[in-house]
Specification:
Helices cover 17% and strands 34% of the residues. The protein is of the alpha+beta class. 37% of the residues are buried.
């Protein structure tokens, strides 16, 4: 069985400043971050099974995030590029936490602009909340009409779509670097 070591620089969501430190947890066999059922930026219904055989980096964010979200997507695009042909085995999935503002049209323009292989997912407010809960992501709005503030991204996941190996990085604005996942 072929094994590779994927080194990924992930900047975990939470549009705001703060101390940078690395936290990770092996989520192999965990009872969370197992699946989602949302619509992609092309209008197709997607689940984690659609990405079977790939390493999937699931990132929660929103298009009006001024710094952390675009920086993370840029970092992931660079990781994919630096992996060369192995980059084709990495699927980045951006799940919006602001479905009221992040329409299919906006997501169609925003997420693939970082890398054409990146997928944006959205759902109703209820579907978004259920997916966030499944991935142990806490989303809080600062106030009515304001964009969400992702206060505690406790488990943005880098996982294989076969759910046999995985790693989660945690906590708001913390940066995860040199994250390794054997496949």
């Amino acid at each position: 069985m072929l094994r590779i070591l994927l080194v990924v620089v992930l900047l975990v969501s939470g549009c705001g400043g703060g101390a940078q430190k690395f936290n990770s947890v092996d989520i192999t066999g965990a009872n969370y971050a197992r699946d989602f059922a949302l619509t992609d930026h092309t209008g197709a219904r997607r689940t984690l099974a659609d990405y079977r055989g790939k390493v999937v980096a699931v990132f929660f964010g929103f298009t009006q995030c001024p710094d952390v979200c675009p920086t993370t997507l840029s970092d992931l695009a660079q990781v994919r590029k630096r992996l060369g042909s192995d980059g084709e085995r990495l699927q980045v999935i951006f799940i919006t936490v602001d479905p009221e503002r992040d329409s299919q049209t906006i997501l169609q323009r925003y997420v693939p602009s970082f890398d054409p292989s990146f997928v944006a997912l959205y759902g109703s407010a209820e579907q978004t909340a259920a997916t966030a809960k499944e991935f142990k992501v806490s989303i809080r709005r600062s106030g009515a009409g304001l964009p969400p503030r992702i206060r505690s991204i406790t488990r943005p996941a880098l996982t294989s779509s076969t759910a046999k190996a995985g790693c989660a990085c945690s906590s708001g604005t913390e940066r995860a670097s040199n994250l390794s996942l054997p496949i």
